[in-house]
Every structure is written in structure tokens, then in C-alpha cells.
Amino acid sequence: MNLFGENLKRLQAQDPALAKRVLAAKKTETVQVVLAKDGHPVPRVGNVSLHSTYRPKEEAFRAVSEFVVREGFESVIFGLGFGYHVEAVLEKFSGRVTVIEPSMEIFQAFLSSIDLRPFLPRTRFLIAQPTPKILARNAPQTWDVFQHIPSVRVSQAYFESLEQGRELSGFLRTHSLRILVVNPIYGGSLPTARHTASALKKLGHHVAVAECDKFADGFASLKDITRNKKNANALSGQFMNFMGETVAARAAEFQPDLILALAQAPLTPQAIERLKSLKIPVAFWFVEDYRTLPYWKEVAGSYDFFFTLQQGEVFEQLQSAGAKNMYYLPQGCFPDEHRPLKLNPDEQKTYGADLSFMGAAYYNRRQSFPQLLEHDFKIWGTDWDLQSPVGQCVQNENRRVSSRESVKIYNGAKIHLNLHSSTYHEGVNPDGDFVNPRTFEIASCGGFQLVDQRSELSELFREGEEIATFKNVQDMRQKIAHYLEHAEERKLIAQKGRERVLAEHTLEHRMTELLIHIFGNQLQSLKQRVAGRRESIEDFIEQAGEKTELADYLEQFRGTPEFSLKTVTDQITKGEGALTKTETLMLMVNQLVNEKR
């Protein structure tokens, strides 16, 4: 086996997702390898040598000599080259080293030329990853950075973007944005929209929600008004125009820094253009399969940013539809809701089972599940034929399952089946790519799941270690039998899956990534906008929290156009009787503010 093959095998053991990407990437001739005077290989990109062509290792150690990593900080290296400076950092410090390299071609040349063993297991390679993804899934405020100058010169735009993102991350940790989330009227993306708004609030942002779902009954009732297709389309169009006006009115009142619409949000191209008149980004997170719901073609060209669950071909189609800025953003979980629960005896009786599934009765599920009826099998979801053998396993009589109840389901069974839907496959879709929200939610609840193999899954979880997969129905049956007999193995995989999802795959991670992508090169204008904004009394009431003593006190000032601490203290001095606890606190704060002046 050649050096590249040996290195790839070693990389596979530490980072199988990266090894898979290396194999999938096309090799190019952009990186030339020359020998230095002392015999060490040196990569060259264009006219730039990434190391000294005399004594690259010796000079790399000299360059690192003044690099310092503070206690509690992580050593992060910008640029890989052939890793001579990385070896120097590894020799100098005892902790983990993270190497960020934007070029897969350089990494491939590295694996073909340098023995990987001295770098493992302490080196983590982040190769050819979007900078928002790196920043959202790590803690850039704890980085001590060594910049490999030739690498930074070769990939200047990438590392500038990374530094801009780091600065924006720091700004967002201390400043709140105003974000309007536009809900769909109904559908599977509605829970994601609600959790997205909650995640943004947890990140410290002021969030308003255009609750289009409140109009779901009205929209549904349109179907009963006329059977004339032309008239029905006209009514539907008028309704959509009305919803657009509703969202525009909410945005004009709230004055957001960003409008984020979720899949199936009732916004026409005309409504989106009106929202863009506010001179702020209008973004769309399409948390659906682009092949199944093609309506995105009508609106893709109108949004400033289009976020999708899928990669590859979808980007080509989005470009053809006029999309301006596309970005891959997978689903996630909301751990405040998706969490382990201790079920009481009655709940365990209801939700406990050897095997469970939650979801609608898509064709591939109806075809596959009859082969599982020998198990203690409970199904939760909609559209099932309750008179069929599989229908006898349905527990909720086809009623929709609430988010809260789904958490109990995920905490109840020993094995949760997670077969992604298909309208025409007999079992597993061999071309399945995106990962559904259930994957992250079950993991966040600490549940054990069996999920069909998906092309995007290996970049999110380590298969066989953090999540268990199956490739077809027969494999699924064998895996069910195996894991029912091996409880400790189930628990270990579920534990590691939960650790991974909490570390990288919450909706807070996703929203951080989204904001960095949108505002990464707009920090100065964002700072000016935030600095020039006076917060309203409504903002302070929201920050105080629902049903708190402070929020109740501030309610008397709702509608005050120029609200400030002086507004409160003036009101207190006009009052009579003993001061309340809140009023006393307000006067103390006012005194402290005046003293600092």
C-alpha cells in the first residue's frame, strides 16, 4: 500500500467523515511538490512555496518558537502546508491542535507526501469547511492562533472571512439583533419554526414571530367555498396577498435586522420584495426535500439568502431559479424540549415498547413495516390505515402528535426506527441525502435509533459509534434483533449520539451559523444599525420574561414612545405610599448610573 493509502486508513480511524470526503474529492494538478535542499517535500501553489525550499522543518520550528498558548485556550493553526509548523506546535505544547485548511487539494498532497502518524491523535483537521460552520461548532473566543503566512497568502479571502466571522461572533455574544421569524401556515416545518425562534431567543436576540399558523383554519376553509378551480386559485392568491400584508405590517412595526422565513411560509415574490424595502436581509430556510416540494422555484430568486438541507445538485437548480446566495444548513434539535425524561409508570405503559416509530404513512413505510409485526411495535403518526395489520400498531388514531408528546415517545422505547419517507421506494431510498429533524431530536432525548443510510449522515454522526444505521429492510430486521439483545451497546451509542448532538447539532448552533453567514462581511454596517437603535419598552418587557414581577411592573409603560430609566424614576417620584421592591431596585440602578457619569 502506498503512503496515501496508509494515511487514509489512519485518517479513517480518527475522522471517517473527512476520509470519505478525501476519497470523493477530485484530484487536481494545482499543487506541485518539490524537494527542498535537505530532501523534505515542499508544496508549491502557483508561484508560492508553502515552506522554505532549503530547510523547511528547521525554519518551521524557528517560526513557532514565539507562539504562546494561554491556559484554557486552544491551539489553532491557520493553514496546513505539509505540516512542518504543526509538528513544531505539537512538540511545544501538550494539548490538542486544530488545523484549518481551506484547500482539499493541499490536504490530498499532504496525505500523499507526509507520514500522518506523528500528527495523530492530537491533531484535528478542519479541511475545506465553510467558515460559519467552523465558528458555530467551536469556541473561537478561546483560540490562540498561529498563522502559517504562506498558506494565509494563498487562501487570503478564506482566512479574511474566518477572521471577520470571529469578530462577528464576539459582537453577537454581547449584542442583540432584532429578528422576525415567519412561520408557515401549517405543515411539518412549523415545529422547526417555533424551535428556531426559541433558539434565537436563547442566543440573546430579540425575536418577533409572524404567527401565520393562526390563520390555518381560515386557509383550510377556502377549499369549501367553491369547486371552480379558477375561483379557488383566485381566492388562494388573495389569501396569500393578505398574509404578505400581515407579515409586512409586523415587520414595519418591529423594525428587524433580519427576516427569516421557514419552509412553506406564505410569502409571494411580491411580498418578499416589499419586505426587502426595509433594507435588511430577507432569508429563507427551506427545511424540506427540494425534489418533493418544488414550490421553492417560485421564490428562490426573491430571497437574499437561501438555506437548504441538501447539497450538490440542488445548488445548480437554485442557481437556475435565480437564487443569489445559497448555503447548506442541516436540521437540528432544541435541547430545552428534546431532552431525557423520567417517565412515570402510566407514561411508560403508554410510550414504552421494544420498537417504536413516529411519522406519517408514506409508501415505503407501509411496505416495510409489515415485516416487523413480530415485535412489540408501537407507531405514532398520521394517515395510517387503522384497519390494516400495521394500523393495529398505531397508538394515536392518526391524530397529530405534539412536540411535547414526541419527546415522551423518544424516551419510551428501546429502539426508535427512523426510516426517511419515500413515495415510491419499497424500503430505503438508495439516493437519500438530507437528514430529518427526528434524527437530531431522538439523539438529544438520549434515545437509541436505527436510521436508514443517508449520504449526509456521516458528516453529522459517526455511524456505528454515535448512531446505528441500516441499508435495507433485511438489514434493519437484523439490526433490530441485534440491538434488542445488546442493551449496553444501545445505551453507549445513544449516550455518544447525545454528546455529539449537544456539541454540534442544536438549533442554537444552526442559528449561529446562519447569522455568521449572513452578516459575516456586514459587521460595520450592523454595528451602526444596532448602535443607532433605541430599544422600546416592548423590548424590555420581553427581556424581563413572561409573568415576572419586573415585566408586570413595566407593563404600565407600554406604548411610551421615548422610554428610558428616567421615565421610570419620574413615575416613582410622583407616586405615593411605600416603595415596592421593584421600585426600590429601579431607584438604586438610577443612582448607580448617575454615579458612573
Can you summarize this structure?
The protein is of the alpha/beta class and about 600 residues long. Helices cover about 45% and strands about 15% of the residues. The strands form 4 sheets. The chain has a 6-stranded parallel beta sheet with strand order 9-8-10-11-12-13, sandwiched between helices. Strands 15-14-16-17-18 form a 5-stranded parallel beta sheet, with helices on both faces.
* CATH topology-level fold name of the largest domain: Rossmann fold
Number of helices: 26
Which architecture name of the largest domain does CATH use? 3-Layer(aba) Sandwich
How helical, in percent, are the residues? 40-55%
Mean pLDDT: 92
Features:
26 helices; 597 residues; Rossmann fold; alpha/beta; 4 domains
Structure write-up:
This protein is α/β, with parallel strands linked by helices. It has four domains: 3-155, Rossmann fold (3-Layer(aba) Sandwich); 175-323, Rossmann fold (3-Layer(aba) Sandwich); 345-505, Rossmann fold; 535-596, no CATH class. Strands 9-8-10-11-12-13 form a six-stranded parallel beta sheet, with helices on both faces. Strands 15-14-16-17-18 form a five-stranded parallel beta sheet, with helices on both faces. A four-stranded parallel beta sheet has the order 6-5-4-7. Strand 16, helix 18 and strand 17 (449-452) form a beta-alpha-beta unit. Helix 1 packs across helix 2 (16-24) and helix 1 packs across helix 5. The protein is globular, with a radius of gyration of 28 Å. The mean pLDDT is 92.
Give me the secondary-structure topology.
Elements: H1 3-14, H2 16-24, E1 31-35, E2 41-45, E3 48-49, H3 56-64, E4 74-78, H4 84-92, E5 97-101, H5 104-113, E6 123-127, H6 131-136, E7 143-147, H7 149-154, H8 156-174, E8 178-182, H9 190-202, E9 206-210, H10 216-221, H11 229-254, E10 258-262, H12 269-276, E11 282-286, H13 296-299, E12 305-308, H14 313-320, E13 326-328, H15 345-351, E14 353-358, H16 363-368, E15 377-380, H17 403-412, E16 413-418, H18 437-444, E17 449-452, E18 468-470, H19 473-485, H20 487-504, H21 507-519, H22 523-531, H23 537-544, H24 549-554, H25 565-574, H26 581-596
Helix pairs in contact: 1-2, 1-5, 3-4, 9-21, 11-12, 15-17, 18-20, 25-26
